[in-house]
Specification:
single chain; 347 residues; three-stranded antiparallel β-sheet
């Protein structure tokens, strides 16, 4: 099991592509500057000891050293021992709607992003509970089996978007049914399903599935994303600018609105609560109160412990590469003059 003690430093790795781009541009600028003095072939003949090959090797060493240094500062740690840890909590399955209507911007920045932000904040407040993730549109899929690994939950959450579900629609009933199947019904944990959607259900009988869940002792809560007035579904170009809005077969702009009545009925049938999110509040506090009302029972789970630091490997590698890069001259010697790895034109 690998984790990083200071994972925020890994964001500095975005500098590596920038450094590579700067190097490529500097090589082009250098060739252009040399070209001012005459034909490149002729000028290179006048500089027989200059080596483009060595300059590129020095840069590769430098880029790897910086990458290794950043990883070392982030301090990768490897778990070397597994132990069973006892916790108290409940089992939660979160079913998030990925239909295109979740792209409507009547909640800012849009319904889907707002829903993901709410789930992320909910995960931050969990302590000992197990959590799983279901995505649905015209069909439903398990995105994350139930787990106590909150980092994994956030990672999977960050990757979801409306394109990962091939069939469009809003099959809330299928999402509830799959959530029920995803629980271990043999354990004694209290269980709840949280459905986050705009409620435009056209595919199945979600209310009936919520009743089935309640009969098994599973609570079904619903969070309504969007406004009753509704909004159009934007189509954006590759620059993120709205180019048009989705239209129906008659060419009319589709307006998608929150179906509060449907979500209230689902929550009522599932013995849970309906909460409406808006642009300033996601209803998280009310939902968290509902979760805390549930009796938390002991959960035993195997987790990695005794993590050992591995930063020294990467820091050491970075130092060695930087020393080699510093000692390496940018000129040819009698051995490197015979190497033409990058097919430099020497004629």
């Amino acid at each position: 099991m690998l984790r990083y003690e200071n994972s925020e430093w890994l964001f500095l790795l975005v500098l590596i592509p920038i450094i590579i781009l700067v190097f490529i541009l500097s090589v082009r600028w250098r060739k252009k500057a040399i070209g001012v003095f005459g034909q490149l072939k002729l000028v290179y003949k006048l500089m027989p000891m200059a080596s483009e090959f060595k300059l590129r090797i020095k840069f590769i060493l430098f880029a790897i050293a910086i990458s290794s240094l950043i990883i070392g500062i982030a301090n990768p740690q490897i778990g070397s021992k597994m132990e069973e840890v006892k916790r108290e909590g409940v089992d939660l399955m979160i079913a998030i709607d990925l239909s295109n209507s979740m792209l409507a911007e009547d909640l800012q920045p849009n319904r889907l992003i707002r829903a993901k932000q709410s789930i992320s904040k909910l995960i931050d407040r969990l302590d000992g509970d197990r959590i799983g993730l279901i995505v649905f549109a015209g069909d439903a899929y398990v995105q994350l089996p139930i787990t106590t690994d909150y980092s994994a939950a956030k990672l999977f959450l960050s990757t979801i978007n409306t394109s990962i579900v091939p069939t469009q629609g809003t099959a809330i009933g299928k999402a509830i049914e799959l959530s029920i199947k995803s629980f271990d019904l043999d354990n004694d944990q209290n269980k709840a399903i949280i459905v986050i959607t705009d409620g435009e259900n056209h595919e199945d009988d979600a209310i009936e599935k919520a009743k089935e869940a309640q009969e098994l002792g599973i609570f079904v809560h619903t969070i309504g994303m969007g406004s009753v007035e509704g909004g159009p579904i934007p189509i954006k170009n590759r620059y993120g600018t709205i180019s048009s809005y989705q239209k129906d077969r008659e060419g009319n702009t589709i307006i998608t609105a929150l179906n509060e009545e449907m979500l209230k009925q689902i929550a009522q049938s599932g013995g849970g609560s309906y909460i409406r999110a808006n642009s300033t509040q996601s209803g998280l506090n009310a939902l968290f109160k509902e979760i805390n009302k549930m009796e938390k029972k002991e959960i035993g789970s195997k987790v990695f412990t005794d993590y050992k630091d591995r930063f020294q490997w990467f820091i050491g590698l970075a130092i060695i590469l930087l020393i080699i890069e510093t000692l390496m001259k940018g000129r040819k010697n009698k051995w490197s003059s015979k190497i033409n790895l990058f097919e430099e034109d020497e004629n």
